[in-house]
Amino acid sequence: MSQHDHETPDPVTDRVHDNSWSANLEGPEHAADRELLVEQGIEAVEHTTAGNHVNLVTHGDHGHPETYLYDALDREFGDDVEWEYVEQCGCGGHVVRVHVN
């Protein structure tokens, strides 16, 4: 985990999900720290069992996730996951669906 000047934020999840689910990465702590958003997005994928997907709902302040999230997912998981851009939310955030193989 990276060093943050503020308190350590709550994890995005504290259990392994044996179903498809959504990870909320839209909090003010995510807006303030893109690295935290990426770290917690990776943790969400790690907490999703094979055959399921997690929707990573990213904060709009960082722009389209293709500019920072896709490469991080590729570096971390390679062919073990596939992702697709779903949509931009009304609040300005973005949804990326990550399928765990």
Question: Can you offer a commentary on this structure?
Answer:
With 101 residues, the protein is α+β, with helices and mostly antiparallel strands. The chain has a domain at 21-55 and 64-85. The protein has helices at 28-32, 34-46, 70-77; strands at residues 21-25, 53-58, 81-88, 94-100. It has a four-stranded mixed sheet, covered by helices on one side. The longest helix is centred in the middle third of the chain and has 13 residues, at 34-46. The protein is globular.
Treating each run of at least 4 consecutive H or I residues as one helix, how many helices? Answer: 3
Structural class: alpha+beta
Major β-sheet, in short?
A: 4 strands, mixed
Numbering strands along the chain, what is their spatial order in the largest sheet? 1-2-4-3
Shape: globular
End-to-end separation in angstroms reads 25 Å
Q: Quick one: how many beta strands? A: 4
Strand content bin: 25-35%
Order of helices and strands: EHHEHEE
How helix-rich are the residues, as a percent range? 25-40%
Mean pLDDT: 92
Rg, rounded, reads: 13 Å
Provide the low-confidence segments as ranges: 1-5
